[in-house]
Structures are given as C-alpha cells and as structure tokens.
Here is the input.
Amino acid sequence: MKTSISHKKHDREDDEVVAEGNRAKHLKSDTKAPLTLPVTPSKYDAPFPFYRRPAEVGRFSLDAQRCYHGDARQLRYYAPPPIEGPSPGFDLRDGYRDRYVRRDESVHEGLEHLLRWVAQNQKQLLSEDKGRPVNADFVTWRGHLTKVLTTPYETQEGWLLAVSLFGGTLYISEVETEAARRQREQRPEMLKELMYMGYKFEQYMCADSPDGTPDPTGVVNTNEAFCTVIRSRLGTHSLLFSGEVDCTDPRSLSPNPPACYVELKTSKVMHSPAQRKNFYRHKIIKWWAQSFLPGVSRIVAGYRGPDGTVVGLETFETMKIFQLIREDPGCWKPAVCMNFCAAFLAFMKQVVTEDNPKLVHLFSWEPGHPISFTVHQNSNYTFLPDWYVEALSMEKTPTPRIPD
Here is the structure.
C-alpha cells in the first residue's frame, strides 16, 4: 500500500485549525489530560521498571518485491567466520555498483505488514476478559519504540508519531518529519554507501540454511526482510510489536526465539579510549534499545577500516551492555530509557481516549522540548486502512477479505 502525507502550507493550516478545535473539545471532556510530557532524563532516573520477558507469538517475511508472506521463508542463519585466524577482511563495498537493489524509501508502508499479520492471526489475539479484538494496549513497530526509548538522550533528530485508538487498542505509526524527508532526499553518496555496507556485512555473516555457508557474490536486496512478532509488558502497558531480525543462530545455547536471534551491526574501527567512550555514549544506546525490546540476546559488530573492509568482530551480550557504561557518570542509563517509555505510553493513554480509527493524535518531539500533540479528524494522517478496520470489527458479517 502506498501512502503519502501532504505537507503543503494550506493543508497544514487547515489541519491545525481542526487540531486546535478538537484538542479543546477533547480536553474539555478530560481536564486531567496534560498538554505536554517532559523529556528531561533526570525526571526518569528511578529503579528499572518491570519489563516482561519478550515472547515471540508470530513471524512473517517480505520477499524481493516487498510482498508479504506469513511464514519464515526469509529467515537467515548466523554463520560467522572461524574465531581463529586473520581478520575477516570482508569487502563491504563489493557489489555496491552492480549487485544492489534498494527498497523505495519514498513509499511509506506504515503498519501495513504488521496489520496483515494481526488480521490473519486474530483468533490467537482475542481478549476473553476485555472483549477487545486485539488483546494488547499498544500495537506498533519495534523501531518506533526504539526511538521513544532513546529520546531522553537524543540531541539531533526529532520525530512524529501518529496514534489512533481502535477496538480498545492504541496503534502507533511513525510520520516522516520534514527534516527527515529532506535528509533522505539529499543523502550524500558516502552515506548511501555506508548504509549498503551494513547490509553487505549481513550477507557475509549469514547463510540460507542452518549448515550452509554465506554467499557474498549474490545481490543485496533491501526489500527482503524476516520479522518477528513480539508480546511483552512494560509496567501496566501490554505491547504487541514487530521488528526485523537479521538472523538466528542454529547453535545458540538458547535455541528458542527470540533469544536465539542475532543483531548484526557495522561501525568505524576505534583506535583510542576516547573513541570507544564516544561509541558507548552515543551509538550503543540505539543498538541496546533495538535488541533489548524484542529480547535479542546478542549483537555482533563488524568494525570497518578506511577502505571499507572488516578488520575485526566484537560480540556484545545485550543484557550486559549496561556493565560497559555504568562507570561513566555522563553516559545514558537503561532505566531512564525504560521509565521514560512507560511514562510516554501512559501519556498516550491519558490523551487518546476516543475510540475512532479516523481520529489521529499526532505526537511531536524536537530535541530540547517536551512532547506535545495535535488532533486530526479524517486527515492525511489517518493510517489504519479500511480493510483492517472491517476485518477486526466485532460485528462483521460476512468475513471481509484480507488483501493478499
């Protein structure tokens, strides 16, 4: 499904008029709902909140044409080089010019693929006690939650999250900001190549079968993906979210997903304690958040040299990353990230109370400011497709067709 969001000035002004009117009406009925949520890290510096062990409840794949399949056909298997011997020497630039198929980033898929999985697996998601079509407080992508977790320490990039309440469940879908759109459209060649290197590293480290070997001579196609669907709970908030998985380790000591999954990353080789300190402060926070949320136990980093070859590998155990940063008083704190996320989920519950798939609350954040929101009725921000609303209607007869 292709969706686009208009950012023309007159559309925005019309939206804001509607937003302010709706917000006033909304707050009149619920005067306890706050207008903003502070982001300052010190406000969330408290003991680590309850986070239930993530459990995989489903999986799906996206093929080379970005078509959905409700199975694990795109799952790859971790096949690292021998520990002994010289550095891997993987050439991360190989194939960039002639064996690279890039996903069209201008196509904003929203929650489309995740919603397809939910609709096809509705029976296992039904709530017996609350009567909700999906027994979860929130449905979203793991990447959206990752952005929320890292917000207290983010200094560069803001975000927009569209939220709708439907069937007693809050759906969260990201909206591309103007700054992100400009950055994507004006991305320099060097950054495009660095993005490719991350995918190429995965090709060197993964095989198509448990006993197979990697084949780096093939095409890197970023349309392809394997996704896990995870259930968890943060404090009082039940979560259902999905995220892309790089590979599974067939020799893992914890054979059951998601613990057997491995996240693969690349980073510039570090030569000094200062560089490693900077790495711990600003980069590994995103790696940690991305893997901690779905319960991925390991992150394997490939360090690239100036010529684009991998000069070394390092494995990080997700649950032990906090031990690497706790001696640095100026570093980030996992508890702050999780407490802030819990507070933001509670904030959304307070603000978004009208069960209406056509009503969107747009939560906005820029570094240095609190989170605020506007309200949009029947606007370009509406993201729950009609087929999904029909599929999950408790009174539906006959059963609607879910798109292939």
Remarks:
- Residues 80 and 220 are 18 Å apart (CA to CA).
